[in-house]
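Before relying on records like the one below, remember that each one covers exactly one chain. Contacts with other chains, cofactors or solvent are not represented anywhere in the record.
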Amino acid sequence: SQRAELAAGLLAEEGRLPAIVYAPTRKETEAIAAYLSGIVTAAAYHAGIDANRRADVQERFLKGRLQVIVATIAFGMGIDKPDVRTVIHTALPGSVEAYYQEIGRAGRDGLPSRAILMQTYADRRTHDFFFERDYPEPEVLDRIFKLLTTEEQPKEILRLQSRLSEDAFDPALEKLWTHGGARVDFGENVTRGEPGWRNSYLAQRSQKQEQLEQMIRFADGKQCRMAALERHFGDLSGARNPCGVCDFCAPAECVAQTFRSPAKSERVVAWQLIQVVRKNPGVATGRLFTDLGGEAVMERRRFEAVVSALVRANLVRVETASFTKDGREIEFRKVWLDTAARGIESGDALEFLIAGEPRTARPKPPKSKGKKARAKSPKSGTAVQVSVPRTPGPDTGAEALRAWRAAEAKRQSVPPFKVLPDRVLASIVEERPGTTNELLSIPGMTVRLVERYGAAIFRALAKRR
């Protein structure tokens, strides 16, 4: 992929290793590690790899026998390696807190290091997909809540009454149970809970959304990166001092981004923007975009790139403001003239650069090495072997798996979906994993779940008739 190629180009330069590369999914982790293996020594590290393999990868990385470790963003590696020179995120993290923690693994020895973040609008769509799946609209939960009574109702009957698909019903019921709106016993019988579930759920949902919005604002921000991070974590005194080394403070030193001269249309918009801000200091960026013609003149993202360029050139400065709507604090940005704009009387006198294409070359890995690396990867992922019969037949093991889950739920006095979520159970039935590694590759299966329930799951799958 383009992001793997970009990472390879960055890491091929002297002084960029050792490195940690973060990827959003296990599949992409494996693909990027395989690609990089044609250029450097690299290995994947995620929850879908068995414990022995993970320990081996970690040990080789810590001892310097492995140059690059490629890990999923969601998986906590617990690696404390002082000489990491580069941390690359190949996709947008879900929160500023996660990002800050992950880039903090670079340069712990006090020597220069780099953090590089790749992001596109597609990352936002990916986060939105998972958010909508895991945090349904409150109206969906309300539809279920209105059907509940003090009399027990089987979960499946309730689902049919709600006219929701399994994919929509299961996460909604789980969230309703979590926030007290429903009571679910180990037999999957559902009764009415407390009516105050909505406020709790809305608060959690809003917090999750805000975490992503904060990360997007950071990535699209128009100020020193370190100052933005310090401001986010409440250090207002540190936020006043630019770091001098990030892509905003020192664009010429940026290794992952090029900068170009503005096109004629961009120079025209920039000059018009400065004239508007002179007359109306502190105007919101959204209002500016509209006043300058909106989409009829320039795409919004291109307009934001012009604003960013003017900030880098000290022609304007952007400050964050907020207002409250429906109990939520909503942030927006205001634009003011900065020092370099004083005395400029024409657009031709403006000096600024627009962010362009990635700076790095994209070396292709040698075919022989790439094939060798890919040939080894399946073998390295099967250290723990647990056999499961795969004989054909009409029974897929679903009945035995559900029976085991129900018994385990009864033992713990919790709803069955707290033992194993419904969509995870359905994926296990469909994929019929035959080894621990294959079970770990099921989306939603964690190391903790496999360690706790793996043997029981394999026994249940083996009971198919």
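The longest helix spans residues 197-219.
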